[in-house]
Amino acid sequence: MYYDEAADAVQKALNTSETGLSSGEAENRLQKYGKNELEEEEKTSVVKLFLSQFKSFLILILMAAALISAFLGELIDASVILFTVILAGVLGFVQEYRAEESIKLLKSLTSPEALVVRNGKETKVPSSLLVPGDILVLQAGDRIPADARLLETISLKIDESSLTGESVPVEKNTKIFPPETPQPDRKNMAYTGTSVTYGRGKAVVTATGMSTAFGKLAGLIGEIERERTPLQEKLDQFGRWLGTATLVVVAFVAMIGILQGFDPFEMFLWGVALAVAAIPEALPAVVTVGLALGVRRMVKRHALVRKLPSVETLGSTNIICTDKTGTLTQNKMTVEKLYVNGTLLSVTGRGYEPVGDFFKEGQSVPEDVHLHKLLVTGTLCNDAGLAQEDGIWNMMGDPTEGALVVAAAKAGIWKIALEKKHRRIGEVPFSSERKMMTTLNTSEGRLYAYSKGAPEVILASCTKIFHGGQEEELTPEMKQKILDTVHELANQTLRVMGFAYRQVTENILPEEAEREMVFAGLMGMRDLPREEVKVAIATCKSAGIRTVMITGDHRTTAFAIAREIGIYREGDIVLTGVELDALENKEFEDIVEKVSVYARVYPEHKLKVVEALKKKGYVVAMTGDGVNDAPALKAADMGIAMGITGTEVSKEASSMILTDDNFASIVSAVEEGRNILKNIKNFIAYGLTCHIGVVLIVLVGVLAWQILPVIAVQILWINLITDGLPPMALSLEAPNRGLMEQKPRKSKEGLVSRRMLIASLGLGSLIAIQSLGVLYWALKEGVSLPKIQTLIFTLIVISLMFNAFNWRSDRYSVFSLGIFTNRSLIYAVLSTVLLQLAAIYVPIMQTAFRTVPLSLSDWGMIIPLASTTLIAMEITKYLERKTPR
C-alpha cells in the first residue's frame, strides 16, 4: 500500500501537502488514530502490586503465626502481628509504587522526537504524537519513527537490519513499485525502527503504532525497562548472607529458650519476628526508590540517565572521553578570519546577528570578487538557515554551517535569495569519513559544484586556485602556503575549513564533481570554551578522573584548546587519527594512558580508544552525537549522547543523555552518581546497626538472664518504624563537600566496606551494651518485666534515631553538615518518635505492644544513653580526620 502509487497521489489520499498538517488537524487525527506507540504488555495493577508485598516466606510465616495466635485465644497478639504486617505491606507498596512512577517519568523523558513539517514550518514533536499525513524530515542518524512513503531523497540510505535482517544499508528512492513487490524491495518506503545512515530526505507518514510493519511483528520495546540493577543483586547477596547467619543464631537461641522453659509458641513467634527484623527485605525497594529519586535529581542537572544500573557505573567512572565542539565549547561558531587571493582578512561581529565588516590590515575591504566567490561557495554548500524572529536572529541547523551563512550575510549575500538564483539539484552529504560536502547548483543554464570541508581534503581535490581574478594552476608552493596559513589559524584556536568550486557538465554524478576543483579560500571560525568547563575539568582532576578530548579538528587547534582549558598536561601525548591507525594495538595500549588529546579522528577511532582503556582496567565514559558514534557509546561503560545535537541512533545506544550538551553536566552527573551510591551505602549501614543491635540484645538477654528484653510484637514494631521513613530520608542527602575529592569507587568494590561493617558492628554493640546495662540495673532494682521491656524497647528506637544522623555522612560531622540541611530526615525522625510515643502512651497501643507509660526520670535516663550512639560516632569521625592517612 502506497509504495505502488505516485508521491503526489499518496499525499492526496492522506489529505496532506508539503506544508504539512495544521496543529488542529494533527490533534484531530491523534484522536482518531491514537498515539504512535506499540501496545504494552498488561501492567501490574495497583492491587497486584500491593498483594505482592505479602509473598515473602517470612511474612507468610508471620501471618500463619497470627492465625495460630487467634486460634489459641491470643487475639491481641494476632491483631498486632496482622497490623504490623499490613502496615509493612503498605510502606513497601508506597516505595515500589514511587519507584514505578519514577521509572515511568524517565521513560517519558527519553521518548524519541521526530522532525516534522507542521503549519508550514519544521518543528520537533514527540514521536508518539505523529499521525498519518505528517511530513517527516529525515537526516543521517535519525531513527524512523513511523512507516512512511518517501517524497524526496538525496543520497538516502537506511539501515533496515532490525526489520529484514539485511546488514547492508538500503539505498532509497521515490520510484513507483509494482503491487507484487515484497516488503524488503520497496525502496520508496521507510519503516518504523529502522535508521538513516546516510543522506537526507522527506516522507509522508502512512501508518503509526500497531498499524506499522514493526507493530505487526513485535510487542513493546521499552526505552527504560524495569530491570534488576547490579546494586540490587549485591543487596540480595548481602541479604541472603545476613539472613542465613541470623536464622542460625535465632534457631540456636530459640532452642536454648525452649530448653530453659519458655513457651515453644512464644519462642517460635519471637524467632520469626527477630528473623524479619534482621533480614533487610525492604532494602531492595528502598534502593530502587533511592536510585529513581537520584536520577530525577540528575534531570534537573541536565543529565538524563536512561537505565538505573548506569548510576552505579557513574560512581566508578575514572576516565571521561569527550567531544570538543558543543560539549567543551559553546557551539556558537563565529567566522573571524578569511584567506582569499593569498591574503588574510579579519571579520568583525559576534553571534548570529549578520552585522560586521571585513578588514585587511586594519583597512576596510571594498567589494572583492575573491571574497564574493568564497562566501557564495560557503553559502550554497550549506544546509543551515538564518531567520529573524521578534528582533532576534536565530540559526537553524549546524552551528558551523550557520557561521558561514552569517559571514555571507555580513557582505549582503543572503542565503534564501542566493538559493533561488542557484537552485540545488544534487549533493554528496558530509560524513565524518569523507570530511567534506558537495552540492550541485544550476544557474542561468550552467551547472556548478561547490565543496567545503577539512582544508587538506579540499586541497587534495583541487588542481586550480582562484587568484588574481582568474583561475590558475595550483602549484606545490601555493599548496604549502595555504597549509602554513591553516597551521597559523589553528594556532589561534580557530577551526579552519577549506572551500572549492568547479563548473561541471550536465548529468555528472555528484561524486565525480569532487575532482579537479578550483580552490576558493579558507575560513577560520572560533567556538569559545564554555565558561564552566575549566572548573569542571579541575573538579575531575581532584576527583581522580582523567579527561580526554576527542575531536575532528586540526591537531594544532585541538592542542591549543586542550591546553587552555586544562585537559593537556605537560608530558601528555597528542595523537591524530592517522598516527593512531599506524599503531599496532599493543603499541597503542602501551601509550593510551598518556594520550590526552585525539585530533583529526574518525568515529571508529573512538571504539579503539574505549577498548584500549578498558583493557587497562579503566571505567570509561564516552560522549558522542553521530550515527557512527553508536558502537563506541555501546562499548563504553558509560555512553553519553548529546540531547540537542545528538541523533536518535546515538541516544538509543547511550546510557545517559545530556540535555544541554555540556561537559560540566557530565561532572554534575558523576557527582550525583557518587552521591546516590554514598547514600545507599549509608542507609544500609544504618539498617545494619539496627539489626546487629537487636539480635545481640535478645541473644545475650536469653543466654545470660533467661529473659526476653523485647517481645516479638515490639521487634516487629522496631523493624517497621525504623526501616521505613529514616532510610528514605537518608537517600535524599545532598552531596558532601568532599565527595569530588575522593578517588573513584572501584567497580568490584563490595556493598559494605570493612570500615562500614566495623562501624555498624561497633554502634550495634553500643546499643546492645546500653540496653543490657538497663536490663541489669532494672533487674537489680526489682523493676517489673513490662517496664523493663518498655525501657529497652524505647531505648533501641531512640538510639536508632540518633544513629540516623550518623549516616548522613560516614566522614563528616553532622554539625558541620548542618543539623537542618536535610529537613526530610528531621521530619522522618520526628514522625518515628511520635509513633513510638503512641506505642507507650496510647492505651490501645499499650495493650497491643505490652508497654507501660514512662516517667520523666525514665526519659532522663533513655535520652542521654541513646545520644551516646551519635557522640561515639562523632568522636570516631573526629579522630579519623585528625589521623594522617
TrEMBL record:
Coiled coil: none annotated. InterPro entries: ATPase_P-typ_cation-transptr_C, ATPase_P-typ_cation-transptr_N, ATPase_P-typ_cyto_dom_N, ATPase_P-typ_P_site, ATPase_P-typ_TM_dom_sf, ATPase_P-typ_transduc_dom_A_sf, ATPase_P-type_domA, HAD-like_sf. Its EC number is 7.2.2.10. Its main location: membrane. PANTHER family: CALCIUM-TRANSPORTING ATPASE. PROSITE patterns: ATPASE_E1_E2 (PS00154). Keywords: ATP-binding, Calcium, Calcium transport, Ion transport, Magnesium, Membrane, Nucleotide-binding, Phosphoprotein, Translocase, Transmembrane, Transmembrane helix, Transport. The chain crosses the membrane at residues 54-72, 78-97, 241-262, 268-293, 683-708, 714-735, 756-779, 785-805, 825-844, 856-875. It holds the Pfam family Cation_ATPase. GO terms for molecular function: ATP binding; ATP hydrolysis activity; P-type calcium transporter activity. Gene3D superfamilies: Calcium-transporting ATPase, cytoplasmic domain N, Calcium-transporting ATPase, cytoplasmic transduction domain A, Calcium-transporting ATPase, transmembrane domain, HAD superfamily/HAD-like. It comes from the Archaea. The keyword Lyase does not apply. This is P-type Ca(2+) transporter. It is a multi-pass membrane protein. It is an enzyme of class 7 (translocase). It is found in: Endomembrane system. It comes from Methanosarcina lacustris Z-7289. GO terms for cellular component: endomembrane system; membrane.
